[in-house]
Amino acid sequence: MNRWAFGLGTLGRDGLAALVSMFLMFYLSDVLDISGAQFAAISGVMVAMRIFDAVNDPFMGVVVDNTRSRWGKFKPWILLGAVAWAGASLLMFADLGVRGWGYVVLFTVVYLVYEVSYTINDISFWSMLPALTEDQAERERVGAVARICANIGLFAVVVGILPVTSALAPVLGSDEAAWFAVVCVLAVVMLAFQAITLIFAKEQVTAKEPERTRVLELFGVIGRNDQLLWVTLSMVLFMTGYGITTSLGVYYFKYIVGDEGAYSIFAAILAVAQITALVCFPLISKRLRRGQIHLLASALMAAGYVVFLFAGTSLPVTGVAGVLLFSGQGMIQLLMVMFIADSVEYGELKLGRRNESVTFSIQPFIYKLSNAFAVAVVGATVLWTGLDTATSAADVTPGHAWLFRMSMMVVPMLLVVVSYLVMRAKYVLDEERYAAILAELTRRRADA
């Protein structure tokens, strides 16, 4: 039951999150058509807000870990965050009749509310995962279902956003109205699937908590968990590269390939590749150790970036590159969730307390910090290559096209390689080490 009750909760939430993380900048530059100065200002606001909110994530983790209620410590915050997040998303894409620099001010306020509410939901939701099971194999299965559902929701948006909004715009009277209609649907879907988790997911792992975690202890909980810190560094590098590539994707097909319609076809191919990798992950994990899977996935991504770089405007070659890239990406993203989850037991062994939410507050911290870095690169790339004023591929010079490719493909490839090397050198929680930790914790809990 937990496998599906938890997994289905990601279906709507990742679709709504993808709309903002991957298409908000395109919406601002190509739908609202704000000025270059306003685009630069909003890019700066998004970077600053993401970093500010990322730093606050561990404090939210303390709040969740200290929650004691009849519904547990996770579900009250999942509900509150989901409702507030849906409302902020609607406001972000609603036509409130404000334009110019007044819109920049309004956007700043709404974006802050969006970030905070997303934090509340994300930390409480994902930190429930270690409480569902301590069995590594079952944890992988729960995580795989969650990532598969998340990617179905995500790629439904990636594949459908441009054709759906193009079809709705004539019916609703404007592109802005079409995008707002999509957001309304996504918000409802997100709340519906989150309700499944709230009603049916049940905590199975409990540990005696000697006392509440004080805010001053927060930095010790994170700082003394060296394995969590190495996972954090590795994943920030990886997700920054991934975020750069995905955020520049729609620009790539519109201004480099010159075929905006091909973006949805390409995204559909990537969806199949990534979801297939996630479906096969439990089978692969029976034959390969996690370290071997990580090496294989990183090699696939590196090869994909090389093929992508020299694909030119060939859509078949670009498709091959995409399959390599996103097959590897799907496996690595699931591995990173497992690495963080296993750090919960490692931290419990070292510190004598089980801080699921503080530990998993690192995941949204990673996503936000890496997204802030990615937004900075994307914003600079759009401005440096003149895409903010371009109307078609004919307006982009060959030099600017190669600068764009360097940002979208070479920089992310280097980040993926360095991310793997960090984990290879510093992460020690392999299968044997985790089993020994779990055995020791079982003995301690029995004694207690």
From TrEMBL:
UniProt subcellular location: Cell membrane
Q: What is its main location?
A: membrane
GO terms in the biological process aspect are: carbohydrate transport; sodium ion transport
GO MF terms on file?
A: symporter activity
Q: Would the keyword Membrane turn up in this protein's UniProt record?
A: yes
Q: Which GO terms describe its cellular component?
A: plasma membrane
Sorted keywords for this record are:
Cell membrane, Membrane, Sugar transport, Symport, Transmembrane, Transmembrane helix, Transport
Q: What is this protein called?
A: MFS transporter
| Source organism | Tessaracoccus defluvii
